[in-house]
Amino acid sequence: MKYLILILACAALAACGRAGAPSPPGPASAITYPHQYPSQ
Asked: Residues 15, 5: contact at Cβ < 8 Å?
């Protein structure tokens, strides 16, 4: 039972990430700092 809870918790946390490189939020016309955010 503990293993099932552990696996479900890990699966839920792993699904929180967003695919792709980080990018600034908002429309392109409203971005004041157009450079990519650092990935680290």
From this structure: no
3-state SS assignment for residue 14:
helix
CB 10 within 8 A of CB 23: no
Span 22-39, pLDDT tens digits: 666 778 787 777 666 666
* Confidence (pLDDT) at 18: 64
Give how far the C-alpha of residue 27 lies from the chain's centroid of Cα atoms, to the nearest Å: 19
pTM: 0.37
At residue 37, what is the residue type?
Y
How many Cβ atoms sit within 10 Å of the Cβ of residue 29? Answer: 5
